[in-house]
Design goal:
It is a single chain. The chain is elongated. By secondary structure, it is of the alpha/beta class. Helices cover about 55% and strands about 10% of the residues. The longest helix has about 60 residues. Helix 1 packs antiparallel against helix 2 and helix 1 packs parallel to helix 5. Strand 9, helix 14 and strand 10 form a beta-alpha-beta unit. The chain folds into three domains: about 210 residues, no CATH class; about 150 residues, no CATH class; about 60 residues, Histidine-containing Protein, Chain: A (2-Layer Sandwich). The termini are far apart. It has a six-stranded mixed beta sheet. The protein has a four-stranded mixed beta sheet with strand order 7-10-9-8.
Length: about 475
């Protein structure tokens, strides 16, 4: 293997010599700055630092504007076989300390795809693995090119040969660099296509990762969503508080020394659990995200701190009345009713005062979710943009990607919805069907929602829709 002689050539080629790489790289560099601003607006615990770093690293490579190609092979490769476009894209003279990314190409013309071709391939790969340039592979992408003579071999034969080669590599050259790409081409003219595909795949994978990251913050579109002006379930929270405080086990199991602190902490936790679902509905955010954001702003701790002295006084009185009230068959009915009435009145005072204390804190928490909703809207737009780029790539299978799709909205359905009083616009925004109304009355909004739902069912329109209240 040491007698395996290779001819070496060096070139510096502009990324413009690879139109697809140049196009996608410009899109990624432009997207990177906006993606960074989005992630920086998130709490630190929700950021994907590794994704940000890998995106910046790839953009750094693409920002060099040139690629340094070093060929080592049994035959010289013509310069026009390395790139697309005119000769102005290439420089055959390379400076010694080149800072742009380097692509190492090791090429050999195989005599056949049998034992001889296998020995030639192993010899070439061995030389590539011990190359001094590959010992420090910073900004270096190794590419092994094995050229078969003509088109005399079928795709199945090439696949079988490649499997045999990979198996032998694992046994004979275990220290080969992991990211080495080994390809078979019918002629060296296919090489520029493989170079372009190599970097296009890197860009597409980053696009996919960003898309997947952003998708975690977008609520599933199969769920009907609607803008509402009042969705905080005060009545349900009130009932839940009453049920909790009315439970005698709740009152007696709490240590007397930390009674107030424990009770209010539990009520704050209950309040948070109750509001997560309606807030998710109101702001069209996943429930896990609402819960995480409320945890980040320490909502429960803030609710406990917001409890007023009046509420603490009412709770103390309620505890005293509850403790003194013991059901007995010997107690007169009118006395039992009187005690029960006092207990209910005291409980009502505690709950009403507590809801008043919690209200201002919950409103501040809603501002956080409102900001996240605005950010999620930007995320949805970016996902829509990325999907457009992924549809143009031909190096990855994106058929399984959860993408925005073009909705087929019947014309008669549009006309009937537009005929509803209060509706002044309808259509799709980033793949989501929306109906815009110019009314602010909640009862009227519900009425319009029911009318739109009836029409979509009648026309067998299977997609979700959003009623959006627009202030003129």
């Amino acid at each position: 293997m040491s007698d395996f002689k290779l001819k070496r050539s060096e070139f510096v080629i502009s990324w413009e010599g690879y139109p697809r790489i140049y196009y996608f790289s410009r899109r990624l560099v432009d997207l990177k700055a906006r993606f960074k601003r989005i992630t920086e607006a998130l709490p630190r615990s929700l950021q994907d630092v590794e994704l940000i770093n890998s995106t910046q690293e790839l953009c750094k490579i693409l920002d060099y504007k040139h690629i340094h190609i070093v060929t080592n092979g049994t035959e010289e490769i013509a310069t026009d076989e390395l790139y697309y476009g005119s000769s102005s894209s290439i420089e055959t003279v390379c400076t010694g300390n080149n800072e742009c990314p380097t692509l190492m190409i090791f090429n050999a013309m195989l005599d056949d795809l049998g034992e001889t071709g296998l020995r030639q391939s192993i010899g070439l790969i061995h030389n590539a693995s011990v190359s001094q340039c590959l010992q420090n592979p910073e900004h270096v992408e190794p590419l092994i090119t094995l050229c078969k003579p003509g088109d005399n071999y079928s795709k199945e034969e090439c696949t079988e040969f490649r499997e045999k080669l990979l198996n032998q590599i694992r046994n004979d050259i275990p220290n080969i660099i992991p990211n080495t790409e080994i390809i078979l081409v019918s002629a060296y003219t296919d090489l520029k296509h493989h170079i372009s595909s190599l970097y296009e795949a890197c860009i597409a994978r980053v696009f996919l990762r960003i898309h997947a990251f952003l998708g975690g913050f977008i609520k599933a579109r199969t769920i009907f969503s609607q803008n509402k002006m009042h969705t905080m379930p005060d009545c349900f929270i009130e009932q839940t508080f009453k049920m909790y405080l009315s439970n005698r086990c709740t009152m007696y199991e709490v240590c007397k020394d930390s009674f107030n602190t424990t009770i209010f902490s539990r009520l704050a936790h209950i309040s948070k659990c109750v509001i997560v679902s309606p807030l998710s509905f109101k702001y069209a955010l996943p429930q896990w995200l609402c819960n995480r954001l409320l945890h980040e702003i320490q909502l429960e701790e803030a609710l406990v701190k917001s409890v007023s002295p009046d509420t603490k006084y009412y709770l103390r009185k309620f505890k005293q009345i509850s403790s003194s009230f013991k059901t007995s068959t010997k107690v007169a009915k009118h006395k039992c009713a009187s005690k029960n009435s006092s207990t209910n009145l005291s409980l009502e005072l505690v709950v009403k005062s507590l809801l008043k204390d919690f209200n201002s804190t919950n409103i501040r928490a809603e501002k956080t979710l409102s900001s996240m909703k605005s950010l999620a809207t930007v995320m949805g737009k970016m996902m829509f943009e990325i999907e457009g780029y992924l549809k143009q790539t031909n190096v990855l299978d994106v058929s399984t990607l959860q993408t925005f799709f073009d909705l087929d909205i019947p014309r008669t359905l549009r006309k009937e919805i537009m005929a509803i009083k209060g509706v002044y616009g309808t259509g799709t925004i980033y793949g989501q069907y929306e109906v815009h109304v110019d009314v602010q009355n909640e009862a009227r909004v519900k009425e319009i929602t029911n009318m739109v739902r009836t029409l979509t069912n009648r026309h067998r329109f299977p997609y979700s829709f959003t009623i959006r209240c627009i202030e003129k």
